[in-house]
Specification:
241 residues, mainly alpha, 6 helices, heme binding, Cyt_c_biogenesis_CcsA/CcmC, transmembrane, Cyt_c_biogenesis_CcmC, membrane
Length: 241
Amino acid sequence: MSIWEYANPVKFMRTSGAALPWVVAGAAICTIAGLIWGFLTPQDYKQGATVKIIFLHVPAALMAINIWLMMLVTSLIWLIRRHHVSALAAKAAAPVGAVMTLIALITGAVWGQPMWGTWWEWDPRLTSFLILFLFYLGYMALWEAVENPDSAADLTGVLCLVGSVFALLSRYAVNFWNQGLHQGASLSLAPGERMSAVYRYPLYLTMAGFFLLFLALLLIRTRTEIRRRRLAALLARENRT
């Protein structure tokens, strides 16, 4: 079986329809259980109760970056192989990624105010995340601005290539600029920097929940985009007759 079989809309609709209930159930269980577990953890000796923001901030930030990279892959598939499902999947993922980026920015500000004494700082990672959010908005606006769907997929694919620089920059900004205020990776494996298991395990669970939540929303939205494409084709056919 080839993975390219799922580029067929009929095959995708049948397979995604069967998988969707399981993905939704997994997302609900992992996200709810992870957040409850996380917010019941003890306060940190340095950050106090503020540390619990990581159970929203870290999964959202990771998904914000990885959703854009997923959009890059699906956009490249469209540009190279012209598979419509991949272009529609990229379009479907963008609003979810924008919301994840916004959650990361807001929770970062809530965490930063007591830690840094300010709601916002032009830190390299924060700045690159803000730019990534603007790219998400621009990507969605470009889809709406171009009437021809294939032309819109081409232009947004190119925009996705450019925006990927900031997606990677937001991920590794702390490594590039050590003078930034933002802390290093929360899940670092370096000796002495690894997060305590008290926080690490519920964080893993919320990360799994956010991933499954994204996957569920992606399947739902992609299925909706395929139905819209079919409806538009039917209406165009009726108008010609």
